[in-house]
Amino acid sequence: MKTTSIKYNPSKLYVMYSLLLIGASILLSSCKKELKASDPLPLIYSNVYIIGDASPALWNIDAAIKMTVNPANKTQFTWTGPLTAGEIKFATQKSFSSDFFVAATASQSVSNNKAQIALSGNPDIKWKLSAAEAGTYQITVDMNAVTVTFKKQ
């Protein structure tokens, strides 16, 4: 059996290590934004679905209504349609264990657009529509602003 020995050359190793550090420095220096610990990191979802007994889907997650992404702003989704008295929230997948856009407070009126992201569906907080508020709405979910705007048509 023939064995081959590899000679250890510290000067070549040092050159390769130096080139690696220079390359990493160039890549890091080309970054345009410096992140700070307090900076919010945007969560971008590819879909948003309407669910709730105030919507035509009721609480059937398989029938959840897919909202339309704004082609000019991929962080906004819209839908126009009928809402009845009841509760509503917005799933990011057709699963009750997905992340949701939910109301900031329990039984929040649709006149208040403040929202929060409920990771894995918790907390389970919904907007509530009264019978007097029922009608056709244009709904906009804005991921960057973390808002859900209900505009009665």
UniProtKB/TrEMBL annotation:
InterPro entries recorded: SusF/SusE-like_C
Protein species of origin: Pedobacter jejuensis
Keyword Lyase on entry: no
Lineage: Bacteria, Pseudomonadati, Bacteroidota, Sphingobacteriia, Sphingobacteriales
Annotated Gene Ontology cellular component terms: outer membrane
Keyword Cell inner membrane: no
Protein name: SusF/SusE family outer membrane protein
Membrane-spanning parts: 12-30
Keyword list, A-Z: Membrane, Transmembrane, Transmembrane helix
Domain Outer membrane protein SusF/SusE-like C-terminal: 47-148
Annotated PROSITE patterns: PROKAR_LIPOPROTEIN
One Gene Ontology MF term: starch binding
Xref: Pfam families: SusF_SusE
Superkingdom in the source lineage: Bacteria
